[in-house]
Amino acid sequence: MPLTVTTAPMTAADLEAVIGIEESSFEQPWSEQSFRTELVKNDLAYYLVARVGERVAGYGGIWVIINEAHLTTLAVERAFRRSGVATAMLQALIDKAVEKGARRITLEVRPSNLAARSLYEKFGFTARGVRKNYYIDEDGLIMYKSLTNRSRESDDEPAS
Ligand SMILES: CC(C)(COP(=O)(O)OP(=O)(O)OC[C@H]1O[C@@H](n2cnc3c(N)ncnc32)[C@H](O)[C@@H]1OP(=O)(O)O)[C@@H](O)C(=O)NCCC(=O)NCCS
Questions:
Q1: Where are the beta strands (DSSP E) in 25-153?
Q2: CA nearest 101: which of 72, 145, 69, 146?
Q3: How far apart are the CA of 124 and the centre of ligand 1, in A?
Q4: What is the pTM of this model?
Q5: 112 Cβ contact list (under 8 Å, min separation 6)
Q6: Rounded to the nearest whole angstrom, what is the distance from the C-alpha of residue 154 to the centroid of ligand 1?
Q7: Is the CB of 74 under 6 A from ligand 1?
Q8: CA distances for 23 relative to 17, 34, 76, 87, angstroms
Q9: Closest CA to 63 of 45, 49, 38, 41
Q10: What single DSSP character describes residue 131?
């Protein structure tokens, strides 16, 4: 059932909850220090958390480099999955990317991660190639979405 989800920029106060979700979501989780560095030192980065009531239910982030956004991470606490939390976060991240001038957004996903691939396809991302050995045990599927109204114009295509 859809929940009432709010999103807000991630702060250091969210990190304990974020790390808990990270460690239960990924086989090779980011460290708390990695998140701290992203929050404090990376001017290209934007991270948000999703809340259901007061509770952190998920988080995600982008880098925006000139006119291209890259989704760096996205995860939802298990108890809140399949309730629209990732949808709310991905829409908010895309809105932020557009606000920062991005004309396209890319990401890598495990080919075996059918839940995430389905989410991205729902948003109009399409598979555009494979990054060999991107994960320790799997290639990375590169997905792409134009953020302009014009679709498939060469100006909006990712650099190869
Ligand atoms: C992938 C993930 C972020 C989805 O989060 P979520 O909040 O459950 O997603 P939503 O509820 O917004 O679902 C939106 C759509 O995604 C797809 N989806 C989500 N979970 C799915 C699942 N288990 N199986 C198939 N499709 C799924 C569906 O198309 C869904 O739409 P629907 O519910 O109308 O069918 C979540 O499963 C997760 O945190 N996974 C572990 C971390 C991860 O893999 N992150 C992505 C790294 S690239």
A1: 45-52, 55-65, 68-76, 104-109, 126-131, 140-146
A2: 69
A3: 14
A4: 0.94
A5: 138
A6: 30
A7: yes
A8: 10, 13, 11, 21
A9: 45
A10: E
pLDDT digits (tens, 9 = 90+) for 37-91: 999 999 999 999 999 999 999 999 999 999 999 999 999 999 999 999 999 999 9
In the chain, % of residues over pLDDT 70: 92
Give the whole-angstrom CA distance, residue 150 versus residue 129.
21
Which residues make Cβ contacts (< 8 Å) with residue 23, sequence separation at least 6? 29
Q: Dihedral sign, CA of 74, 78, 82, 88?
A: negative
In the annotation, is 23 catalytic? no
First to last CA, the chain: 40
The one-letter code for the residue type at 143 is M
CA 1 to chain centre: 22
Whether 68 is a known active-site residue: answer no
- Beta partners for residue 48, in sequence order: 9, 60
Does residue 90 have its Cβ closer than 6 Å to ligand 1?
Answer: no
CA gap 63, 102 in Å, rounded: 10
Place of tokens 């809105």: 95
